[in-house]
Each structure stands twice: as structure tokens, then as C-alpha cells.
Specification:
Layout (H helix, E strand, L loop, with lengths): L14 H18 L26 H12 L2
Length: 72
């Protein structure tokens, strides 16, 4: 479901994060032959700042954050 999330910030941010989770699932499946609930996305971190899609009335703050992340 994390791959199909409606909001971009709820989906995987990197291919590396997805790969790590898939390898964890494969390893667990090989040992237990059953699905367990795992903490998905724990190793998924983007190197760039992404403002959430749903920030209402925060245009000034978003501008400050984006300006700080680009160094301008």
C-alpha cells in the first residue's frame, strides 16, 4: 500500500528504500514462510527537502523552507 499511497510524501522517496524493504520481506518469507507486519520505509530517506502536499495557509513558511534548502 505504501507504493500506491495517494500523497507523494507517503510513498517511497528513494529506490534504495524500496529495495531494502523488499530484501527484508524476502528474508522474512524465507525464514518464516509467512507475512509479518514490518516497519516499512524505516531506511527510506530523501536527500532533498520535500514539503508535504497539504500545507494550507503556510505559503510564507514554505517559501522560507524552500529558500533555505536551495541556499538562496
Amino acid at each position: 500500500m505504501k507504493l500506491l499511497a495517494k500523497n507523494a510524501e507517503d510513498r517511497y522517496q528513494t529506490a534504495a528504500g524500496l529495495t531494502i524493504d523488499l530484501r527484508k520481506c524476502l528474508a522474512e518469507w524465507g525464514v518464516a514462510s509467512q507475512h509479518r507486519t514490518a516497519l516499512l520505509g524505516a531506511d527510506d530517506a530523501s536527500e532533498r527537502l520535500m514539503a508535504p502536499e497539504k500545507l494550507y495557509g503556510r505559503e510564507h513558511e514554505i517559501g522560507m523552507l524552500l529558500g533555505a534548502s536551495t541556499g538562496s
